[in-house]
User: Which sequence fits this backbone?
């Protein structure tokens, strides 16, 4: 009979030491004798004397001098204290003179340095009981990683994006503390964007018994759904690490989205199985759920399945775990997808994983906030560019009803790449938000070649075995007839990049007329919040810039090399027609705009001092640009929208002509300045009305009205601002959870004496906090290098705005946030830290930008 042990999961995020550089006594992976990896992989001389009382004057030698245990002294290297997740790269300073590999343009990684870092933690454990097993899981270590425990090299990973799980059962010790050492090597890179450095995701220690549910070993699908009932199919993989066969009963318990346990007959939910020693078995069960509550876009109705493994002889609980799932079925049409009978275009964006001050080491709440920001704009799908997502992103997408497209990082059939693909599919195949797998991105040298077709076929086969329910796609950039290699013909959905931008969409569809198509990258419009014309000196794109201005402005031959030598006459230089076509074409299921939020690296323009791929509808602080309103007008057609730009505060330009445009989903718009309507109504074409001759600037009030069928249905009002007078704070939430590293994003802006936003304010603002919280960091959304890049207590406003990330501590109470600027009326806001569950049941959405008066007054009047 196998021993019974409870399953547990403990965070190892806190209490680490960090060293940047390879200039320390390095640990070994090849050793002569066990436990002699040396370096900092075991106790130091001082730690050995402290914990074991052993003299440390000389190293220990193995028999016959076959191996030597070399221990450093505590002072042999400088270590700083950190908690995880941690991104050391964005703590450094970008510089065009930083060393880089010759095959990578510095701009791709925004001129941040590469390098090697070590992480070390010393922790005690209780003795490992017979029949108990312990594993360590690293959700993500940047670059190429190696891990040592107590003088043993125990494994590593060759990608930043796949979790690394290591069985350490026999290598743990309880008499003295354990030493865990991690080497993260970011000298080379997988991505042409800024990748994190270090242990930038969570670390866990997990225990389980001999007989257990395998990691990611539960698959839940709902192949048959009607309003009256849903057929739910469950597969459970049960492993046995004991030598003897164990007979067990698998018990399934279902909880509905309202928290009610469903009453189901035992014969419908229980199964018996004998699991041979050192082997595993898969148990399959079908269950009918009556009157199911289905999952859909914007409605993340989740059922919870609890799986219990009970020994038949002992009647003891051997293992238990839970998994959330949704009752949903997706069908595909040539112009849309159909989710539980509801038809919709894929209205998606691409997202990189970094955000503002935090770089790639995001608190869970910031991951959630990015998803919420996308949903607020009308997004219903996120493509994770270009790798496997974090569990936190998928979990939140499940909860709010957002589709997710994960992507394989490396297109290869190497053992490492295949295992990375399998890990991604197994981790997320039961998540209702995950609706398709992307198997490569812009593999120009592979698409359409015999080798590429063979590799793609293998990857598709791996997906089909683990998850036969979801289609597969690729990020296709080659226009190929595909008659020789069948590269695209293998796919369920053909992914296409920038066919609207380059004006080849119909041509591409005609090459494969019988297949489904999705534009998994489209847009590529770089712009900067508060900037209107291309600023070559400052390296800023603006709301009136043309696409090719940023793409062609590069000082390294390789930068943006995938785009090639662009001929601006052969593609659309403006964005509105591209976006409109991408989401209205009758033979395209939808599109993903590149990108939803700005990101570090791959800057546009691709030269110093630009640090940011400024393609987002929101900047790195999460603040919306003018571009945001174009996309919102496309994604929310039932909500009448008008948004005029530029702003209406231009001292010194009185009487001058200003360029003027409106993003809208109305039929036509009119412009009124200080009570006088200017000219006739302008037609809205492709969600944009361009006042070609511009308008004459007069300080005061400008009102733009949108008409549908001759009736005013929306308006946008802006007012000329006076001198800066006071600060305003606007938090995105009023309550934070003390049970995790919860974060409120607090916006700061400057207003005049009448309360009107001052869009050109550059004041330096300082922040302080009273109560059980702290300022986690600051960000102003600037896309170029500035002294405020890693601001923690004071920051200069960028076009009138910035944000503070306010983190809760572990104690309950009121967190008072104070913002002070020289000569300005200070601002306060209060956020409550609570131990009560937050964002559970009723989800807290992102701020509705229509209600944020910073951008004037947006009204839907219909």
Assistant:
């Amino acid at each position: 009979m196998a021993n019974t042990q409870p399953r547990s999961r403990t965070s190892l995020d806190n209490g680490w030491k960090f060293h940047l550089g390879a200039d320390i006594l390095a640990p070994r992976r090849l050793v002569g004798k066990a436990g002699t990896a040396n370096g900092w992989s075991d106790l130091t001389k001082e730690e050995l004397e402290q914990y074991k009382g052993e003299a440390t004057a000389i190293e220990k030698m193995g028999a016959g001098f076959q191996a030597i245990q070399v221990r450093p002294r505590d002072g042999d290297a400088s270590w700083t204290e950190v908690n995880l997740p941690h991104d050391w790269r964005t703590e450094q300073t970008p510089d065009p003179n930083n060393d880089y590999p010759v095959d990578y343009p510095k701009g791709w990684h925004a001129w941040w340095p590469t390098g090697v870092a070590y992480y070390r933690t010393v922790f005690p454990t209780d003795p490992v009981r017979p029949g108990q097993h312990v594993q360590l899981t690293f959700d993500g270590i940047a670059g190429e990683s190696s891990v040592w425990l107590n003088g043993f090299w125990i494994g590593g990973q060759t990608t930043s994006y796949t979790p690394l799980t290591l069985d350490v059962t026999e290598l743990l010790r309880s008499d003295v503390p354990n030493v865990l050492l991690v080497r993260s090597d970011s000298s080379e890179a997988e991505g042409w964007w800024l990748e994190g450095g270090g242990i930038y995701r969570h670390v866990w220690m997990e225990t389980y018994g001999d007989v257990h549910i395998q990691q990611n070993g539960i698959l839940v699908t709902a192949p048959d759904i009607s309003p009256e009932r849903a057929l739910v199919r469950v597969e459970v993989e049960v492993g046995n690490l004991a030598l003897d066969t164990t007979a067990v009963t698998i018990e399934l318990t279902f909880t509905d989205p309202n928290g009610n346990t469903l009453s189901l007959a035992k014969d419908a939910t229980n199964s018996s199985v004998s699991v041979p020693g050192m082997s595993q078995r898969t148990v399959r069960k079908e269950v009918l759920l009556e009157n199911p509550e289905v999952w859909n876009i914007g409605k993340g109705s989740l059922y919870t399945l609890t799986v219990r493994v009970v020994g038949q002889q002992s009647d003891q609980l051997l293992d238990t775990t839970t998994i959330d799932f949704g009752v949903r079925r997706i069908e595909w049409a040539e112009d849309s997808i159909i989710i539980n009978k509801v038809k919709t275009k894929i209205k998606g964006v691409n997202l990189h994983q970094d955000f503002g001050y935090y770089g790639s080491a995001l608190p869970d709440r910031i991951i959630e906030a990015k998803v919420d920001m996308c949903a607020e704009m009308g997004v219903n799908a996120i493509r994770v560019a270009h790798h496997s997502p974090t569990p936190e992103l998928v979990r939140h997408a499940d909860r709010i009803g957002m589709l997710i497209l994960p992507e394989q990082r490396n297109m290869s059939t190497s053992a490492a790449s295949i295992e990375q693909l399998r890990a991604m599919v197994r981790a997320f195949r039961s998540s209702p938000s995950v609706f398709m797998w992307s198997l490569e991105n812009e593999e120009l040298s592979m698409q359409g070649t015999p080798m590429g077709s063979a590799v793609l076929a293998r990857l598709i086969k791996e997906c089909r075995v683990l998850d036969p329910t979801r289609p597969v796609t690729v990020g296709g950039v080659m226009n190929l007839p595909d008659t020789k290699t069948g590269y695209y013909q293998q796919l369920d959905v053909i992914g296409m990049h920038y066919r609207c931008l380059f004006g080849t969409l119909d041509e591409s569809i005609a090459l494969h007329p019988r297949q489904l198509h999705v534009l998994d990258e489209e847009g590529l419009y770089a712009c900067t919040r508060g900037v209107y014309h291309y600023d070559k000196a400052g390296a800023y794109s603006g709301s009136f810039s043309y696409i090719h201005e940023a793409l062609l402005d590069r000082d390294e031959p390789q930068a943006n090399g995938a785009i090639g030598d662009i001929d601006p006459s052969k593609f659309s230089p403006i964005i509105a027609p591209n976006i409109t076509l991408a989401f209205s074409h009758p033979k395209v299921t939808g599109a993903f705009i590149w990108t939803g939020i700005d990101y570090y690296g791959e800057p546009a323009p691709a030269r110093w001092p630009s640090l940011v791929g400024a393609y987002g509808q929101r900047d790195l602080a999460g603040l919306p640009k003018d571009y945001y309103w174009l996309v919102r007008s496309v994604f929310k057609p039932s909500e009448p929208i008008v948004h005029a730009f530029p702003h209406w505060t231009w001292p010194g330009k009185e009487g001058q002509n200003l360029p003027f445009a409106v993003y809208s989903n109305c039929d036509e718009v009119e412009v009124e300045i200080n009570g006088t309507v200017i000219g006739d109504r302008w037609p809205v074409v492709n969600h944009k009305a361009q006042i070609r001759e511009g308008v004459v600037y007069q300080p005061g009030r400008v009102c733009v009205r949108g008409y549908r069928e001759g009736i005013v249905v929306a308006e946008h009002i802006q007012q000329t601002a006076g001198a800066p007078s006071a600060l305003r704070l606007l938090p995105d939430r009023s309550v934070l959870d003390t049970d995790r590293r919860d974060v409120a994003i607090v916006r700061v802006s400057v207003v005049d004496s009448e309360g009107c936003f001052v869009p050109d304010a550059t004041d330096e603002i300082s922040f302080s906090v009273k109560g059980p919280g702290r300022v986690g960091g600051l960000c102003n959304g600037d896309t170029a290098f500035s002294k405020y890049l890693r601001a923690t207590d004071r920051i200069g406003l960028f076009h009138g705005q910035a944000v503070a990330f306010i983190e809760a501590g572990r104690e309950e109470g009121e967190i008072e946030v104070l913002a002070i600027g020289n000569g300005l009326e200070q601002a306060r806001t209060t956020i409550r830290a609570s131990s009560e569950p937050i964002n559970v049941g009723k989800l807290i959405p992102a701020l509705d930008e229509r209600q944020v008066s910073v951008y004037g007054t947006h009204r839907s009047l219909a």
